[in-house]
Amino acid sequence: MADSDQSALHVRPGCVAPEPSQRGARRQRILSHRQYIDGILHGDRTILARAITLIESSREADRNLAEQIVEDCLPHSGNSIRAGVTGVPGAGKSSVIEVLGTYLIGELGQKVAVLAIDPSSQISGGSILGDKTRMSSLASTDMAFIRPSPSRGSLGGVAQRTREAMLLCEAAGYRNILVETVGVGQSETAVHDMVDFFLLITLAGAGDELQGMKRGVMELADLVAVNKADGTNLKAAERARGEAQNALHYFPVTQSGWTPRALTCSAQTGMGISALWNCVLEYTAMTKANGWFGLARRNQTQKWMHEIIRDGLKHRFESHPAIKARMEKLEQEVLEGHTTSFRAARELLETYSDFDR
Question: Which of 69, 84, 155, 239 is found 20 to 30 A from 263 (Cα to Cα)?
């Protein structure tokens, strides 16, 4: 489905936000800038979903409006806890998120927004896994907003507009933002650089995966949660927790001053879920007290600015008429081995520089 389609389905209470693949299923009237802002600030999930669809659009007209919406929502954002959730395949990330979200709503009375980043189809660009189907219980309450978005090849399994989506959710009154990544185990710094707390979910018997992630995702984790600690798997899960805790001791002291820890939990029984969230709250309180919380967010905003610059330059380069005129021919020459990738890239960059003076 084309990215440019602004239409979004009406989200009734108990329904998840529509994902991009659902656009075009039903046309709705075009909303004004003021209607978007008012709807988001009043917590209208339908308008929030349409606004996120808008910021994911690749159309220039949509991007201009989306930027205005984000800028106007910015003063109303920032008052949330942003937690990233990643883990090895099969660890039960979606299940833990569903139980955690249900706990936050049922026990603490707090709204939850889940931005579930799915792998993208190479054909349509849409989400493949469809996390909303695995969070049916959480989706049944109108205090939850679940948005599956395709990663579209972004590093770390993060959708291109996840940051903007988080800001809009915060402006809509969601004080807990959970970002679930694809869990590819590579370049997860992408999500780490946009959240306050980073949770790694693993499971007993994942020794090979744990070793492979040691110098990557695990060293970024603020908490390692060994899931599926129930039934006959309880002892194995506790052993895995001990192994993870020992491994965490080998990493350098964190800049935040927080000492990463490991615990066991069960998405099936709910065991350990409250303890998990208490770790998040403890981390948040400590880093706010020592100043790291605000500093980290400011650094993330600076990195975001540089990413926007890179994306903007790439877009300008690829859409330049002179580049379009040369690109196809040079790509064909590279494919046929008549020129090297380096020479072709240099020629295109020189062409752009000559016309851009």
Answer: 155
Strands 81-87 and 223-227: unpaired
Query: 166 and 194 in contact (C-beta within 8 Å)?
Result: yes
pLDDT band at 332; cut points 50, 70, 90: very high
Give the model confidence (pLDDT) of 201-239 as tens digits. 998 876 554 554 555 788 889 999 999 999 999 999 999
Q: What are phi and psi of 205, to 5 degrees?
A: 90, 5
H, E, C per residue of 27-76:
CCCCCCHHHHHHHHHCCCHHHHHHHHHHHCCCCHHHHHHHHHHHHHHHHH
Q: What CATH number does the domain containing 118 carry? A: 3.40.50.300
Residues 167-180: what's their mean pLDDT?
96
Domain co-membership, 171 together with 136? yes
User: Would you state the pLDDT for residue 4?
Assistant: 37
pTM: 0.82
- Tally the domains of the chain: 3
Q: Are residues 33 and 174 in the same domain?
A: no
Q: How confident is the model at residue 192 (pLDDT cuts 50, 70, 90)?
A: confident
Among residues 29, 73, 84, the alpha carbon closest in space to that of 48 is found at 73
Kindly state the tokens that stand for 12. Answer: 């009734």
Single out the residue in 37, 54, 74 at which a domain terminates.
Answer: 74
DSSP state letter for 168: H
CA dist 268 → 85, 113, 324 (Å): 18, 21, 54
| Range(s) of the domain holding residue 130 | 77-290
Residue 26: the pLDDT is 46
| One domain, residues 325 and 280 | no
Angle between the 60-73 and 33-41 helix axes, to the nearest 10 degrees?
Answer: 40
Mean pLDDT across the chain? 83
Residues 153 and 170 in one domain: yes
Residue 186 neighbours by CB distance under 10 Å? 14
d(CA 143, CA 35): 22
Contacts of 66 by beta carbon, 8 Å cutoff, 6+ apart = 51, 54, 55, 57, 164
